[in-house]
Amino acid sequence: MTQTYKALVAKRLDGKLAVGFEQLSAAEIGEGDVEIAVEYSTLNYKDGLAMSDAIPIVQQDKLILGIDMAGTVVSSDNSRFSVGDKVVLNGYGASETHNGGYTQRLRTKGEYLVKLPAGISTRQAMAIGTAGYTAMLSVMRLERLGVVPESGVVLVTGASGGVGTVAISLLSALGYRVTASTGRMEEADFLKSLGASDVINRAELSEPGEMMQAPRWAAAVDSCGSHTLANVIAQLHYSGVVTACGLAQGLDLPSNMMPFALRNVSLLGVDSVHAPMPLREEAWRRLAKDLDMAKLEALLVNIPFDDVPAAAGKILQGQIRGRAVVEIGS
């Protein structure tokens, strides 16, 4: 009997995206020089967008969804990897132009894979996922622009989401004073347990604001975009810095030049999909060193593989707190 593997597949039919589980043959699990037995994946905001087709993320007529996966190498023609290695995949076009991580078995290019650092299991890697890895990239960009704990308060928007919760944990562990912005004020105690000193309602930032506002933040990590990001820019201190990595509120940025010209502020984009390999490897080393794994455990929501399509709608509505781990298994 031919071996098949369960996978969550997207098909574009007559311009519409259909999503469902299929049993795939070995010939259908992707192309590349490394084959992985997938153990865990995760559910990111971008996965929700892909399944809803709200943004045309899926660019092929048929492919396996899931922008993340972690598992064990079972076959390799790549000199960087050996059978038994634990690896992680984040982005690199997974779920966009080639097969992603919602599958029991994946074949892909070794150039997309990072060997997991000691101290991070495949489950923990997916508890971190693209969202947590993006949070680390954001922190690293702030550091490179000279933001230190003594600079002042760092704001984290979208604080109850995947990027936000990991960013709070990382920044607080590194000695920064963090203010969390969330639309779920009932989560204030949880966010403070992660290390936030203060929690504010996102309504303070989500409506149109003045071009220049009273300075409040030395730096910020923003995953919302739109009016939230515009207001954050307007509230930065002189030489303040904000990293932008998400669009939970919207794709637009209704801002102006005043804070840039008069306060010398910096707006930094953070891309996790095509980040070069040395930067990825550095980010994963930093996560192994700087992220409190006990706090990470507190962020986890376990989602059965079969429930991923239903959970995708919930993450778009902001109804999933922290990091969602999907157990794929064999």
Report on this model:
The chain has 330 residues and is of the alpha/beta class. The chain has 2 domains: 4-115 and 297-327, Alpha-Beta Complex (Quinone Oxidoreductase, Chain A, domain 1), CATH 3.90.180; 130-269, Rossmann fold, CATH 3.40.50. It has helices spanning 45-52, 122-144, 162-173, 188-194, 226-234, 258-263, 277-290, 293-299, 308-316, and strands at 4-13, 16-25, 34-43, 62-64, 68-76, 86-90, 105-108, 113-115, 154-156, 178-182, 198-201, 217-222, 236-244, 266-269, 300-304, 323-327. The strands form 3 sheets. Strands 3, 5, 6, 7, 8, 15 and 16 form a 7-stranded mixed β-sheet that branches. Strands 11-10-9-12-13-14 form a 6-stranded parallel β-sheet, sandwiched between helices. Strands 2-1-4 form a 3-stranded antiparallel β-sheet, with no helix packed on it. Strand 12 (217-222), helix 5 (226-234) and strand 13 (236-244) form a beta-alpha-beta unit. The longest helix has 23 residues, at 122-144. The chain starts with a strand and ends with a strand.
**Number of structurally distinct domains:** 2
| Fraction in helix | 25-40%
Instruction: List the helices and strands in order.
Output: EEEHEEEEEHEHEHEEHEHEHHEHE
CATH first level of the largest domain = Alpha Beta
Number of strands: 16
Summed over residues and divided by their number, the pLDDT gives a mean of: 94
Rounded to the nearest angstrom, the distance between the terminal CA atoms is 17 Å
Sketch the major β-sheet.
7 strands, mixed
| Count of helical regions | 9
**At the third CATH level, what is the topology name of the largest domain?**
Quinone Oxidoreductase, Chain A, domain 1
